[in-house]
Write a structure and sequence with these properties.
Layout (H helix, E strand, L loop, with lengths): L1 H4 L3 E4 L7 E5 L13 E6 L16 H7 L3 E5 L9 H18 L11 E2 L9 E2 L1 E7 L1 H23 L1 H5 L12 H4 L5 E5 L5 H11 L7 H5 L3 H6 L2 H10 L22 H9 L2 H5 L2 E7 L8 H12 L5 E6 L6 H8 L2 H10 L17 E5 L5
Parallel strand pairs: 3-4, 3-7, 5-6, 7-8, 8-9, 9-10, 10-11
Antiparallel strand pairs: 1-2, 2-4
Length: 369
């Protein structure tokens, strides 16, 4: 901890004291070197009302030492200085500022090849990952949905390619200044993804009035739904946010008033979220008394119902709420599973692996995975 405290670089992205990041690089690495294999953008938890980057410095160690990835621990305004929407805005601003001042750390180096299944090769590029714990996982996921909406708007502006079913060829380079970092993977550790359900759970524990969640996320069920990433994704599909609302072109390039929008949603809505969301790993301890593991299992079910297929789940026996992040600091299964997943030992690779399926659920009983 003391060594890390002397070796980080602080990056400010706003005037508030909490709008700062701590950047850690692998030993003997500078920002001009080509040895960094990717970036971890870590978002700490704290029930939306507490937490600072220095508290999570030890999280950086396994990524620095075992994967040679750069790590940036992001600070953001917490309640009462900011509500959830403003916290998400802070993450967006942080990513944009980081991409501006450290562009070399988020761009694949020519010396690295694309990651493949079983990535023990040190010459493989591991990409840019956003990892969040607890409330940090929640706001990180909301940030990714903001990115999804921006990308869907770009599809609307290039609808001719959509008609030709060439979504994957759409040029996303124009969004670089808006997205900042276009993440390749998301890891959610013990996160709540449905705020309405989590409010009920907190009420059952008798802590709903002292928890910062209700004022930070809003005081009504409607506000809770707006702050719930799993529900927002279903609304994104239902509102036809991928296609232009109300107008569909036929093969002649003219508006087809009789087009079946529902059938087009079924055709495109099931593939776009999977295509424009990064690959996802959701980790949860089965002894979590703060956020029950069912928060992850239910969110995963909803995501798959929206067509998201690049999603894995890891459930850890005898593991509590804080344990999933402490495993990164002191060693444990959450850390081991995540690092292996990032190296594609657990990640599905449908293009190269004929045995890959649409989902992978892993349950650890402390003796085997």
């Amino acid at each position: 901890f003391l060594k890390l405290s002397k070796s980080y670089e602080e990056i400010r992205y706003g005037s508030h004291d909490m709008q700062r990041m701590e950047l850690y690089l692998p030993s003997s690495t500078t920002t001009s070197d080509n040895d960094v294999r990717g970036l971890v953008f870590f978002v700490h938890g704290g029930a939306w009302g507490s937490g600072m980057p220095w508290m999570y410095r030890l999280v950086a160690l396994p990524f620095l030492e075992e994967l040679r990835m750069a790590v940036v621990i992001v600070g953001y305004r917490t309640y009462p200085d900011a509500n959830v929407s403003e916290q998400v805005d802070d993450l967006v601003s942080a990513a944009i500022e980081f991409a501006r001042v450290k562009p070399d750390l988020i761009q694949k180096k020519k010396k690295y090849k694309n990651n493949t299944r079983g990535g023990d090769d040190t010459n493989e590029w591991l990409g840019n990952s956003i990892i969040g714990h607890s409330s940090g996982a929640h706001i990180a996921f909301l940030m990714l949905l903001k990115h999804l909406c921006l990308k869907s708007k770009l599809i609307k502006s290039q609808r001719n390619k959509l008609k030709e079913k060439e979504i994957s060829k759409i040029d996303m380079s124009s969004l670089s200044s808006i997205l900042g970092i276009d993440f390749d993977s998301f890891v959610g550790l013990s996160g709540p993804y449905d705020i309405s359900h989590h409010f009920d759970y907190e009420a059952g524990r008798g802590v709903e009035e002292i928890s910062p969640m209700k004022p930070a996320c809003g005081h009504s069920r409607e506000d809770f739904h707006v702050a719930s990433p799993a529900i927002l994704l279903t609304k994104l599909i239902a509102m036809n946010d991928i296609l232009e609302e109300g107008t569909v072109q036929n093969d002649d390039g003219k508006n087809d008033d009789n087009a079946d929008v529902d059938s087009l949603l079924q055709q495109y809505g099931s593939c776009c979220p999977s295509m424009f969301l990064p690959r996802i790993l959701m980790v949860h301890g089965m002894e979590d008394g703060t956020v029950p593991f069912t928060a992850t299992s239910e969110a995963a079910r909803i995501l798959r119902s929206c067509g998201v297929t690049n999603l894995d789940e890891l459930y850890l026996a005898q593991t509590g709420h804080e344990d999933t992040v402490m495993h990164f600091m002191l060693g444990g299964e959450a850390k081991d599973g995540t690092l292996k997943w990032l190296k594609d030992e657990y990640c599905l690779n449908g293009k190269d692996d004929s045995t890959a399926t649409s989902k992978k659920v892993m349950v650890s009983n402390q003796s085997r995975l």
